[in-house]
């Protein structure tokens, strides 16, 4: 029987992007379903009282670490020179499109735009195009994504994730077991094989 991977991610997290690049392969291999769990990394960090930005030494190391993994996976990665990109509305659209057939394609396009092409997704025009290409109603979703009920839903999802033990992104839950980091996908694979 197909198992389900809950995939907790934020678009602003480059490690979430790397995880996403590997999920398609796993889906094909194990015929499992992905339950997409868009989360705000900022809210999650506030929830575990870890709001301080990473130290410069860690940031420098992370760049190399990310490049090494991208090379290993053979996937494109463009890291911004400045700080992390902004993707607040994109994240809320991903949440608002729960249950819509185009959600997966929209998520894929945002990850690719940000991290493969190194382009921004802040503009509503860009988001509308990505929605349309995914067969989603861009205008309706943007309206919903910028409403207070999606803010409340995002906050609720953060609380729920914390209760499930999630403390960083990307995270995965298979059969109730939590795995943190795209570098733990081999354990996710083992859990799928059980
Ligand atoms: N080793 C992990 C690193 C993941 C990571 O550092 N994620 C960041 C967000 S991009 C995070 O959640 N940091 C919070 C923490 O480490 O507590 C991987 O390869 O995925």
Structural description of this entry:
The structure is a single chain. The chain is α+β, with helices and mostly antiparallel strands and 194 residues long. The chain has 9 helices and 4 strands. The chain has one domain (4-193): Glutaredoxin, CATH 3.40.30. A 4-stranded mixed β-sheet has the order 2-1-3-4, sandwiched between helices. It is globular. The chain binds glutathione (GSH). Glutathione is lined by residues 13-15, 41, 50, 167-170, 181-183. Belongs to the GST superfamily. NadH family. It catalyses: 2-hydroxychromene-2-carboxylate = (3E)-4-(2-hydroxyphenyl)-2-oxobut-3-enoate. Residues 5-192 form the DSBA-like thioredoxin domain.
Q: Would you spell out the secondary-structure blueprint of this structure?
A:
Elements: E1 4-9, H1 14-30, E2 33-38, H2 41-47, H3 56-73, H4 88-96, H5 103-116, H6 124-133, H7 138-145, H8 148-163, E3 171-174, E4 177-180, H9 185-193
Parallel strand pairs: 1-2
Antiparallel strand pairs: 1-3, 3-4
Helix pairs in contact: 1-3, 1-9, 4-7, 5-6, 6-7
Bound molecules: glutathione (GSH).
Keywords: Isomerase
EC number: 5.99.1.4
Catalytic activity: 2-hydroxychromene-2-carboxylate = (3E)-4-(2-hydroxyphenyl)-2-oxobut-3-enoate
